[in-house]
Records
---
Amino acid sequence: MADFRTHLTGGAVIAAVAAFASYSEGLSDAVQTQALFVLGTAASLLPDIDADDSKPLRGVFDMAGLVAGFMAAFALAEHFAVLELVGIWAATWLFVSWPLRLAFARLTVHRGLWHTLLMALVLALAAAIVADLLLGLDATRAWLVAGFVLLGYVTHLVLDEVASVDLMGRRLKRSFGTALKPLSLRAWPGSLMLMGLAVVLAGLAPDPQPLLALLGRAGVQTGLLAAHWPRW
């Protein structure tokens, strides 16, 4: 598999090219373009959070703990003093960063569900919903956010798959085929759950017309997708 530095550099390069393309097409302004670059780069590290004690795993749970701590503290702001709120924030952060992270590491297998295109799709759809409902972005920008999550995630999978080919020795390593796969057959119950979740999220996602229009401009036939897009 590719190392952390390779994933970070590769993800940043691909995200930068895509961000400049978005800016040149008028899809994002300067601030949004920079945010999309950061998002795409961060997404390129996500597949490795199923690796025990990896840098992406620690980083994701540390950040999630900080955000969850602030959300918990502000939700209880009317009932506690400032020092007590700081304690709530710290306790929430520590809980997410340590016991919750360790539990996640024990329940996941590296190059399992997280190393699939299906997981990339689910996270991209979730990102579109968050951008729409929580950030208040319009449908075009929400799908742009989803696109950068998907791009960064797939970049990681491709780099891992490329690293499994030994060009000098002209052979395939044992890891070949484990990084870039549609779904995980070994974890088929989880794959089935992800399929169902993808359908649900697609139905909750923003108006797909801007996405279909962008795909159409890229030469992708979208008639079948438009006809069967779920709406709840």
Note: Residues 52-109 form one domain.
---
Amino acid sequence: MEETPVLAAVQSGVLTLTLNRPHRLNAMSQPLIAALREQIARAAGDSAIRAVLLTGTGRGFCAGADLAGTGTGALDADGKPDLGAVMESAYNPLIRSIRDLPKPVIGAINGVAAGGGANLALSCDIVLAARSARFDQAFVRISLIPDLGGTWFLPHTVGDARARALAMLGASVPAEEAQRMGMVWQVIDDEKLMPEATALAAKMAAGPTLSYAAIKQAMNRAGTNSLDQQLDLERDSQRALGKSADFKEGVAAFLAKRAANFTGH
């Protein structure tokens, strides 16, 4: 019986999810994916959870799909691997749920993030990386393409030329270079990663969650919207946010030069 593949704990409004297969560098088995999806759904439905922090146990964040275990999917009618089946049923819904979650998701990348693990990291809203971390687009080494949104995240974060090179060369990018490329918000000394990531998540959990949700929605749609469509979306979001109690509180706090007490209403 495998250990609990994802550890979950809630404190100060933050749901901390820790990938917990250190003997496999937290490679994604189907039980791990199912547990992650369950916890993201929990975060979506629980008003007490206001932010999510995602990290890994041991020396790696996530080594991608567990090719030696249960992460490679079903067989087709000819007995050949049907990788598309597991993408459709498990991996793609996970990435969609993270991006659509109306709460911030902070990734604390504690070590190697390879293959799908690299793109799971990139699906987070804010990515912090340990100095020893690296991001490895390993797919081409086994004659596949980047998945878990990699072919979308990479061009949008590092630009088309770099994205193509990273994917086609199967490049491994150290944390500080990943930050220069735009994949990472901040690089932190290894021993300080979790304290700083936890503090950031707690700060965001106490912040204007309605605003975070609207920002996520707007950013998600910016890649396909025209400028006119995006301006209309901004107008509609501002109209709704301007009627919220949190906007009223934010303005009052600003004028009084005090900290705001946001409630998510």
Note: The domain at 209-256 is CATH 1.10.12 (Lyase 2-enoyl-coa Hydratase; Chain  A, domain 2).
---
Amino acid sequence: MPRRTNNTPRFPLLLSIILGIIILGVKFLAYYLTGSMALKSDALEGIVNVLAAFFAFGSVLYAEKPADEDHPYGHGKIELFSAAFEGGLILLAAVLIAYESVETLIRGTELQSLGLGLILNFAAGAANGMLGFFLVRSGRKHRSRSIEADGKHLMSDFVTTLGVMAGLAVVYVTGISWLDPAIALLFSSWLFYTGAGLLKESVGGLMDHEDPELLEKLVGAMNQHRVPEIISVHEMRTLRSGKYTHIDLHTAVPEHYTIQKVHEVVELFESQVLAVTGINGEFHTHIDPCGKHYCKQCSVANCSIRIHPFEQSPEFSIDSVTAPGPDREHSTEGYGIQHQ
């Protein structure tokens, strides 16, 4: 099966860069008019947004480079570095905001034109929220972790902007100015939580942490297109490289089948699974002759080597497809088939 396209649309990230710069300017204007530490914190977060968008755009371009001798699995993992970089920037912003908040709490602050600043900041925050929602949807549609991570960051930024707005509205009504740096300090705590979560998720991807959602999708498709000749699937593993997914597994088939017959059955099964899941990727399948281990769950008719009558073919589950086969030593005697 031919390799699918690995191109990611440029528009979402270009839009993120352009709007990010405009939103950043509006947030700094709001801070300049008010002198609010909380609004300054929100503006500093805007710098992170713009830097992250530039880095994400570069990583997506690099990820589209085809596989070569030095990178046989492609260049897609650069997107995880982009997400990790964004998480690190968020953590840095959180630390800087916390430092300035404590300093402002000690020396005190005087707010000016808070009403206009709140209006400007809310408009910028709302734009961030809509942009973030668009990026998350686009990232999931095109299976781009860089775009999705950028979108999640912007959406969390909108949530924190709403929190800052609510807190500053209290300051505006009550005139208690020390609440401003206190709100900024809470804002930095939320940013630290967001950055740490993004960093953890990115490191998990770089370490090839298994994706339960992906496994569930694959198992559902395998049950949907299972045929009697696919007796068992086990030792399945997945590896994500950008938008491309590599799936390794062992498949037990009737041992009296010819190689040509096995090839046809397995190729059709794999192509159907990829089609129904919409996964952009390939299978690396190791074929195991049944070795008479599966007679009770094998429904192949007129089998000349059967030693037990057929009882039931249990549905595939995540546990069953990722578990070792019944005879691991025997399974090494099979042969490999790769399909894309």
Note: Residues 137 and 236 are 29 Å apart (CA to CA).
---
Amino acid sequence: MQISIAQFLEAAQDVCDLTVASGEKYLDRSIREGALNRPGLALSGFFQYFPQRRVQVFGLAENAYLKSLSAEDRRERLTQLFEQRVPCVVSTRSRHPLPELLECASAFKVPVLKTSLITNRFINQATLVIENLAAPSMKYQGTMIEIMGMGVLMEGPPGIGKSETALALIERGHSLVSDDLTVLRRDSTGAINGSALDITRYHMEIRGLGIIHVPSLFGVASMRREMRLDLVVRLERFDPKREYDRTGLISETVKILQAEVPAVTIPVAAGRDIAHVVEVAALNQKLKQLGHDAAKELDEKLVRALERKRLA
């Protein structure tokens, strides 16, 4: 794992209320371990098993201990700490870092950050941020929509109508996550989450119309920043020679980031309301997640009816 302090700061500055106290030009330093560390033992001079690859958090106890020392001892202990080449230091509770800490950080080119959060809360929030940044991710060609709490990713060849279908779904009251290119990330629970690229978020490309800004046209409720992926919908041009599934008994999946995601294939033909079909596919998948599979229930009814007829 290798995450720059700049990436961590950008991802955590809102949820952790992070700001740079000093060393802004050293934000390219790397975090190499996901957990955070409170360097109490290191400040007392014990460096065996010291996790120098982690973000070092200075809370109430660390600051109180440093203040109990003389200025000379503080500088010596902090120098020993920064000699370990730690990635960065975070001071919690909006406490301004001690002058000796800022001097040592500057000498060893280590950035110092500040947060208003109490120490335990900051550690919990920052750990989640780092886990998300370190999670496996990929870019996937497709448009993602939120349909009644279900994350649906539509894929298919260029010109098949993914964006137009998404536009029709937005008009029905659903929400856009991303258009054309989706960033997929697997979190610590194994779930796949989708979001848009920062540069294209809130925008869609409609052939013949150009680029549109979705929230301006349909309101802020028409967008979702991130959504769990529940279903992949493959759009393909209708092939009269191909036998498409007409029962729903055949379960399709697609492997994304080592996870199996349910999938359906929808043939696109003139006159078909694809937006409506995609909407129903999402609702049907939601029912399956709740344990209600219409195709299997009908199949079981038919089997029971045939069995009764055989025994009659």
Note: Residues 294-311 form the longest helix (18 residues).
